[in-house]
Amino acid sequence: MLLLSLRFISYHLPLASLAGIAQIIFLPSPWAGLLCLLALSWLTPLYALGLSLGVISASLSAAALGAPAAAWRQGVYGFNGALVGLVLQLYFGWSPLLPWVQILAAALVTFIQLGLNAYRPLPIFTSPFILLTWLVLLLPLGLPEAAPLPAAASWLAGILLGISQVFFVASPLMALLLLGLLGWQHWRLPLYALLASCLGAGIATLLEVNPAQISQGLAGYNPVLAALAVQSLGPGWTILAIVLAALGSAWGLQQSWPMLTSPFVISSWLVLLSYHGWRYWQQGRS
Questions:
Q1: Crossing angle of helices 221-230/188-206, nearest 10°?
Q2: What pLDDT does 1 receive?
Q3: Residue 79 in contact with residue 24, Cβ under 8 Å?
Q4: Higher per-residue confidence, 249 vs 3
Q5: 235-268 as b/e: b if 16+ CB within 10 A
Q6: Quick check: 27 and 41 in contact, CB under 8 A?
Q7: Where residue 132 falls among pLDDT bands split at 50, 70, 90?
Q8: Transmembrane stretches, by residue range (predicted)?
């Protein structure tokens, strides 16, 4: 039993946790997760720490709660916890209490995910992360606020940073790494990501969103995620998801609302429902 436990801690848990990081961009690859973690560690070590605490806590909790083994190994039960740990580090400055909040929140988000999986008519995506993070942000925890991030240089830079903001950082290095990882999976994926970020920035500009927010890539990351989530349905449905996510992102930025990844989730759900409804109607006609 001890050997099994040591193997779990030294082999299975690290691989599942790294795969959970890569699942943020829909890649079930521990190697992709490792590269993302190393890049984040070089850019912002505290973000990498929060991400690591979250994904390890979520993966451990999922294993303890009896999550399906195959999905667990692919990181399906790690990415929501990873995002919780990362975003709490983004919103709050360092304090001795914060790591414990990150660990507990990531464990709770796994419980929510397992509960929603039992009744889901559609993929739940990052909805557990959104719900749990909104709840934590409403609690009077007394944590210090994080310092604001500097603005990017230009609107064009914002297109590239819209890809890196999938990990809530404004970094051309991270953006290029993510594009490379997506291209390794399939040549079409980085093209969709660039198109999504470009449309997100363009729609936000037309709707008169603050240019500083656009230049930081904040209008691009939800369209990027929506494109990656539904790209298997074909170009038309993918572009529809991108536009819907871009409109939701623009609205959220105008309202100064912590939208997180909610525009991506809602737009993807709408497109999936429309797609299945259209297929059902097509089958009824034939």
A1: 140
A2: 38
A3: yes
A4: 249
A5: eebbbbbbbbbbbbbbebbeeeeebbbbbbbbbb
A6: no
A7: very high
A8: 12-40, 46-65, 124-143, 155-182, 189-207, 227-247, 259-278
